[in-house]
């Protein structure tokens, strides 16, 4: 099963988000509370972007819901495995790395704003984003994730 519809991955995303930020990732009524249906809802229907990358030295995306795919103009097969640094242009990568370092240090950052780039080269600002550590219930770091609903074209 791909992570796109994996209820265990949803538990990692939503559980770590709730533990670190104190807020739910999904609306309370999303898909009736069934984990498999919630995973499908988050991937296919959520009106906000969710992305996650792994813990590699050059982290690679392991998840991007369809809202994120549309915003960044990559399909699932292109997004999965793409180095996450490519979501920002080279001059903006140092700022992006500072963000990721702060998330590593503090567990999460809320209200983040940063310039990103789509596959076509279109630049856009993500605004009011939350970026958090993906930490499972055993305390093992699995990567980092981000969610945002607000953006504006540059």
Description:
- The chain is α+β, with helices and mostly antiparallel strands.
- Helices cover 32% and strands 29% of the residues.
- It has five helices and six strands.
- The chain has helices spanning 7-21, 35-44, 66-72, 76-79, 93-106; strands at residues 49-53, 61-64, 108-117, 123-135, 141-148, 150-153.
- Strands 1, 2, 3, 4, 5 and 6 form a six-stranded antiparallel beta sheet that branches.
- Strand 3 and strand 4 (123-135) form a beta hairpin.
- Helix 1 (7-21) crosses helix 2.
- The radius of gyration is 14 Å and the shape is globular.
Short description:
By secondary structure, the protein is α+β, with helices and mostly antiparallel strands. It has helices at residues 7-21, 35-44, 66-72, 76-79, 93-106; strands at 49-53, 61-64, 108-117, 123-135, 141-148, 150-153. Helix 1 (7-21) packs across helix 2.
Which features characterize this protein?
six-stranded antiparallel β-sheet; 5 helices; 29% strand; 154 residues; alpha+beta
Topology:
Blueprint: H1 7-21, H2 35-44, E1 49-53, E2 61-64, H3 66-72, H4 76-79, H5 93-106, E3 108-117, E4 123-135, E5 141-148, E6 150-153
Antiparallel strand pairs: 1-2, 1-5, 3-4, 4-5, 4-6
Cα-to-Cα separation, first versus last residue: 37 Å
What is the general shape?
A: globular
Please tell me the overall pLDDT: 93
How much helix is in the residues?
A: 25-40%
Please tally the helical runs, counting DSSP H or I stretches of 4 or more residues. 5
């Amino acid at each position: 099963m791909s992570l796109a519809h994996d209820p265990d991955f949803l538990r990692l995303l939503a559980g770590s988000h709730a533990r670190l930020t104190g807020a739910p990732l999904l609306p309370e009524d999303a898909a009736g509370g069934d984990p498999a249906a919630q995973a499908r809802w988050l991937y296919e229907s959520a009106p906000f972007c969710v992305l996650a990358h792994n813990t590699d030295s050059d982290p690679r995306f392991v998840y991007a819901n369809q809202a994120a795919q549309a915003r960044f103009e990559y399909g699932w097969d292109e997004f999965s495995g793409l180095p996450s640094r490519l979501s920002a242009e080279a001059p903006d990568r140092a700022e992006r790395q500072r963000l990721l370092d702060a998330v590593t240090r503090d567990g999460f950052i809320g209200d983040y704003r940063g310039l990103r780039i789509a596959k076509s080269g279109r630049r856009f600002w993500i605004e009011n984003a939350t970026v958090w550590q993906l930490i499972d219930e055993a305390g093992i770091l699995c990567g980092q994730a981000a969610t945002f609903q607000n953006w504006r074209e540059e």
